[in-house]
Amino acid sequence: MTPSVDSSPVPPRGRRVSETIEQLRARILGGEWPLGGRIPTEPQLVAALGVGRNTVREAVRALAHAGVLECRQGSGTYVVSTDELAPVVARRLSDHRMAEVIEVRRAFEVEAARLAALRRTPDDLAALDAALAEREAAWHADRLAEFVEADAKLHVAVVAAAHNAMLAELYASFGTALRATVAQAMGDVLTPERYVDHGRLVAAIRAGDPEWAAREAGEFLEHPTGA
């Protein structure tokens, strides 16, 4: 009797690499390999993932190109980001493209405010109030770096209140660019003419008025002088 032979098709090389990339990404996002930490060596990955050395090498190279991993000569490969879009946005961020960043902010934040007015929960409103209070405290204390961070935190809270997971993920990738536009708008010191009241934005979301919320979110970015 002729021995049976396993005739299961071998996945094409491109598909094996794609599947390996997804496995690596899952382990990074799952926290198995934390941000700043070193991932296992190539032989260890080959054994753990059950694929060939070349497949592992290509998958690691792809994630390094995406800005998620960084290969350091003589040291190993490290997790430098959990978000593949963030490094791309950061690489494209420069002063001469700041106008484009503002346009993208409007696209994100106007729709987020509109949705937040429709979907906000009591917990969302509490988070917005806390972020607004933190922003105001930083302003009155004349702490520029704290104000930039608090302002960004408030905008993130608005996006979270929209309850759109994809929007939140995309906006998270925009964090560096967001802070850069706020910092540029503020300059070296906090001055009264650069102050923008975000209390009305929070009030519009609390009132459940999507048009008012969208208008408040977009108005200060139309001709940006504040954050």
Automatic annotation (TrEMBL):
Gene3D superfamilies: GntR ligand-binding domain-like, Winged helix-like DNA-binding domain superfamily/Winged helix DNA-binding domain. Residues 14-82 form the HTH gntR-type domain. The keyword Transcription applies. The keyword Isomerase does not apply. Keywords: DNA-binding, Transcription, Transcription regulation. It comes from the Bacteria. It holds the Pfam family GntR. SUPFAM superfamilies: GntR ligand-binding domain-like, Winged helix' DNA-binding domain. InterPro entries: GntR_C, TF_FadR/GntR_C, Tscrpt_reg_HTH_GntR, WH-like_DNA-bd_sf, WH_DNA-bd_sf. This is FCD domain-containing protein. It comes from Micromonospora cathayae. The lineage of its organism: Bacteria, Bacillati, Actinomycetota, Actinomycetes, Micromonosporales.
